[in-house]
Design brief:
By secondary structure, the protein is mostly beta strands. The protein contains 1 helix and 26 strands. It has a 4-stranded antiparallel sheet with strand order 1-26-25-24. A 4-stranded antiparallel sheet has the order 3-4-6-7, with no helix packed on it. Strands 8-9-10-11 form a 4-stranded antiparallel sheet, with no helix packed on it.
Length: about 400
């Protein structure tokens, strides 16, 4: 019995040692799948509930001002009276709810502090709001991607019209100096006093305009080519990359070091240019993504070097964290779903001065979310939902 027990004990020790070795190997493999990157967690209590029984429709624009106030623009006409807007039906069919005004402003604590927007005197409100941006003077710029939205509007923070740029109702023309083609998003190079239009849903270009008078200064297409409005076949991930943008050109974001990052959304690629339109490089993101594409919107980290680039992918329902100088994907987070930290049509993305990340969702998503920046740390390459206290 003694000898038998000794043999059993030896086998047990050997087994435990093997288990420990296996565990160590698993932990080492897990560490190999981790990377140092910005760490975020969703704030499920931000923003606070809207007043007046208001609900929001497709939430397709997002901007942040110097006070870290967060602005969104949504589509009132996507609030359906039968399903979620019965109080605004004529006659009312329920006590809840009604569509909020198109432009909503939240303070850093998530309180709604202002709201405005819609048709007014002296301008044509877009038939389909798309994109909102706040410049260094707290002026609000709004584009549109509906039929006839060949213009951009510029307002004061409280909704007083400053300028209508372009003429509504113009046809597609990527060579035009007087109108646009359903602008998806606006961004700014303040030092040059220039606004960058992702132009967009019918045109196929980046257009750069003077921020004071709205005059087009220059424009370009994919690879810096002259933009061509000739229809193109659908995206094929196995075909050679085409030499034009497909529609929509969904963002054009100038960085602090003189580069411009363009969302060629249905081509699943980011193209990088100098500010004069000279092509620098490109990267493909989830290149087998069809339909809506993978490259929806871009924001930069708030350190002076803008070390990281954040990319919203509304088809695969995730956020990519990218090393900006190499365009390497470090990590990704999010998943498809309705709960905090999940996404349905994640559309727009922006950062505040503290590095916090904000997103909006279109289609049936219809919401604004905040992801709190927790500093740099080790994270998995694929994080899933960044829930508090993970």
């Amino acid at each position: 019995m003694t000898r038998r027990n000794a043999v059993l004990a030896g086998a047990l020790v050997t087994g435990i040692a093997g288990l420990w070795a296996g565990q160590a190997a698993l932990e080492a493999a897990a560490m190999d799948q981790q990377v140092r990157a910005p760490v975020f967690e969703v704030d499920p209590f931000w923003p606070k509930p809207l007043p007046n029984g208001w609900v929001i429709g497709m939430t397709i624009g997002l901007g942040i001002d110097a006070r870290d106030h967060v602005y969104v623009v949504h589509r009132q006409n996507t609030v359906n009276a039968q399903r979620d807007g019965g109080a605004s039906a004529d006659p009312p069919i329920s006590e809840c709810c009604s569509a909020a005004p198109p432009v909503l402003e939240f303070d850093p604590e998530g309180n709604l502090v202002n709201s405005w927007g819609g048709p007014g005197e002296g301008f044509t409100w877009p038939t389909s709001n798309h994109g909102i941006a706040i410049d260094h003077k707290d002026n609000i710029w709004i584009g549109g991607n509906g039929a006839g939205d060949s213009h951009v509007l510029k307002f004061t923070r409280d909704g007083r019209l400053l300028m209508q740029i372009g003429t509504p109702g113009q046809p597609t023309n990527s060579q035009s100096l007087t109108s646009f083609g359903r602008v998806a998003k606006i961004a700014f190079d303040v030092n040059a006093n220039e606004a960058y239009f992702a132009d967009g849903y019918s045109n196929r270009r980046v257009a750069v305009v003077d921020m004071d008078n709205g005059q087009v200064k220059r424009f370009w297409g994919a690879y810096g080519n002259a933009p061509d409005d000739t229809p193109t076949p659908g995206y094929d991930p196995d075909a050679p990359l085409i030499q034009q943008f497909r529609t929509p050109v969904h963002c054009a974001e100038p960085s602090s070091d003189g580069l411009v990052y363009v969302c060629d959304r249905p081509n699943d690629r980011i193209q990088v240019f100098r500010t004069d339109g000279t092509f620098v490089r490109e990267v493909r993101i989830a290149p087998r993504t069809l339909g809506d594409g993978s490259v929806w919107d871009i924001a930069f980290s708030r350190d002076p070097e803008q070390t990281h680039l954040y990319l919203a992918d509304g088809k695969n329902e995730r956020i990519y964290v990218i090393q900006r100088n190499t365009l390497e994907i470090l990590t990704e987070f999010g998943s498809g779903g309705r709960q905090p930290g999940q996404f349905f049509g994640v559309h727009s993305i922006a950062t505040d001065s503290r590095g916090n990340l904000f997103t909006t969702e279109t289609y049936e998503g219809r919401r604004l979310q905040k992801f709190v920046y927790k500093g740099m740390g080790m994270v998995a390459r694929k994080q899933g939902v960044v829930w508090p206290g993970r």
